[in-house]
User: Fold MADS-box transcription factor 50 from Ananas comosus.
Amino acid sequence: SVQKTIDRYKMHMKEPGSNKRAAVESIQHWKSETARLANKIEVLEAHKRKLMGEGIEPCSTEELRELEAQLEKSLSNVRATKQKMLLDHISVLKEQERMALRENAVLREKCKVEPLLQLTIPEGINTSDQASPNVEVETELIIGRPGTSDSR
Assistant:
């Protein structure tokens, strides 16, 4: 095992240009990949600007139609997503309403089962809605400190 490692080391040392060549090829590959991705980003940003309505003056009628169709499709997707979210929210609210109605029914039943508390009224208090029509009340307004008898 140690001998194999030494042999590999010697073989790599005999070919000093092979590692350099591989590194140069790798660098060239990454440079071309970077340039390709930069170009793709530029194209995507230009498309985004067109979708935002910027720089569409030089577009042909056909390009504008395609852009409009794309925007309408996007808008339709947004509306469908919004509608689904609203319907989901409505179903959650309806379930909460059903739960509240059940709880309300349980509480009503509970109130019917429990005996009603009897209100005790002390004697001498008139509980009828008809008040005595000949009740006179005397009011007096005194301005000044309490205890002085100057009334106006």
Q: What stands out?
A: Residues 1-57 form one domain.
